[in-house]
């Protein structure tokens, strides 16, 4: 197959970002995202509002992605879309739109697993960014996911660890809520953590067997700690905010790195790639760098715009599947709990 002139449109609508991207032979030509601000006032994503906003955004977002790429829809070779996992009402918007566009243009329709997208974002052609060699370990950390995946090849992946309750981003956001910070709180905790002492306060780490994670106990521990200390000193949070943030962030990083260490030891794999919104965290990035010295890891962090939810990662998976001659049927259904 001629792999030299392939344009694929990727569409992502699994949560609260409506996104579209055009990829040309593995290189991103456009990466458009309409983020939904409406959820901020609720302190979390409201599914029904997300779905309605996707409906409003999808046409202009796709239009913009094509315009920025400098192509017409007739030049597209395939349409890739997120089939799942995610919020059903949100997924339906992207799925239905992708189906009709592929049908109208009479070109292949390619369904993409959002979690594979986070992982294969590392294969976007991007100057200054190396692609991890197979096999490697991928840790996806965001507001919706916490997973460690053993990646043997593009479409040969095994989930070897995942959260049994909250995602790591939720741990940041819910802790931030307890401290009176805005949503999402991860970036603010990160900023304040740089100014605080990570050993100022100790929080109990969860005991979860194997490579799975748990974050809901940590959140409850932080809540009780703050309630107890505030009873003694009503200004406790205000006076110690940077130290509290640093201590929370430190605890979360130790939890993540301990599991990565175990995963690397169990599998013998030292190539470690991260993705998802939480991989923006400066403490986690530093901990990975330290891992290179301490444990002989080689670590990979994609360009920031490809770590948070985006359609470029859907487009790269679509492109890779297209090269394998893959396409799906028009009767494909969105799947909220789609597995890798
Ligand atoms: O990937 P993403 O944009 O959306 C999904 O959740 O899918 O990730 C958003 C999450 C939020 O929980 C946010 O608080 C967290 O990523 N986050 C951070 C940082 N930047 C974003 N958490 C910690 N430190 C950061 N610098
Ligand atoms: Zn995601």
TrEMBL record:
GO biological processes: tRNA threonylcarbamoyladenosine modification
Entries under InterPro entries matching the protein: ATPase_NBD, Gcp-like_dom, KAE1/TsaD, Peptidase_M22_CS, TsaD
Catalytic reaction annotation: L-threonylcarbamoyladenylate + adenosine(37) in tRNA = N(6)-L-threonylcarbamoyladenosine(37) in tRNA + AMP + H(+)
Top EC class for this record: transferase
Cofactors, names only: Fe(2+)
GO function terms (MF aspect): iron ion binding; tRNA N(6)-L-threonylcarbamoyladenine synthase activity
Compartment(s) where it occurs, according to its Swiss-Prot or TrEMBL record: Cytoplasm
Protein name in UniProt: tRNA N6-adenosine threonylcarbamoyltransferase
Gene from which this protein is expressed: tsaD
């Amino acid at each position: 197959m001629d792999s030299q002139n392939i344009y694929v449109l990727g569409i992502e609508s699994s949560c609260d970002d409506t996104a579209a991207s055009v990829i040309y032979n593995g290189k991103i030509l456009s990466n458009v995202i309409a983020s939904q601000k409406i959820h901020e006032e609720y302190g979390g994503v409201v599914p029904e509002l997300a779905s309605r906003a996707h409906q409003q955004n999808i046409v202009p977002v796709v239009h913009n992605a094509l315009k920025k790429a400098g192509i017409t829809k007739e030049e597209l070779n395939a349409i890739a879309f997120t089939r799942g996992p995610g919020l059903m009402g949100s997924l339906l918007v992207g799925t239905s739109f992708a189906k009709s566009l592929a049908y109208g243009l009479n070109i292949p329709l390619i369904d993409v697993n959002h979690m594979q997208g986070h992982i294969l974002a590392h294969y976007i052609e991007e100057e200054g960014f190396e692609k991890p060699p197979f096999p490697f370990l991928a840790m996806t950390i965001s507001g919706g996911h916490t997973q460690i995946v053993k990646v043997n090849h593009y479409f040969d992946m095994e989930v070897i660890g995942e959260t049994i309750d909250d995602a790591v981003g939720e741990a940041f956001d819910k802790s931030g809520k307890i401290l009176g910070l805005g949503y999402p709180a991860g970036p603010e905790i990160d900023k304040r953590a740089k100014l605080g002492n990570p050993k100022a306060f100790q929080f109990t780490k969860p005991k979860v067997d194997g490579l799975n994670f748990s974050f809901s106990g940590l959140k409850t521990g932080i809540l009780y700690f703050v309630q107890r200390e505030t009873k003694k000193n009503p200004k406790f949070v205000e006076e110690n905010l940077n130290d509290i943030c640093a201590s929370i962030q430190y605890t979360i990083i130790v939890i993540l790195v301990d599991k990565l260490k175990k995963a690397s030891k169990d599998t013998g794999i030292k190539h470690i790639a991260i993705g998802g919104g939480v991989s923006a965290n400066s403490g986690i990035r530093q901990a990975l760098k330290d891992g290179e010295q301490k444990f002989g890891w080689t670590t990979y962090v994609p360009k920031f715009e490809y770590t948070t939810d985006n359609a470029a990662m859907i487009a790269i998976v679509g492109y890779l599947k297209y090269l394998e001659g893959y396409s799906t049927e028009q009767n494909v259904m969105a799947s909220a709990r789609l597995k890798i």
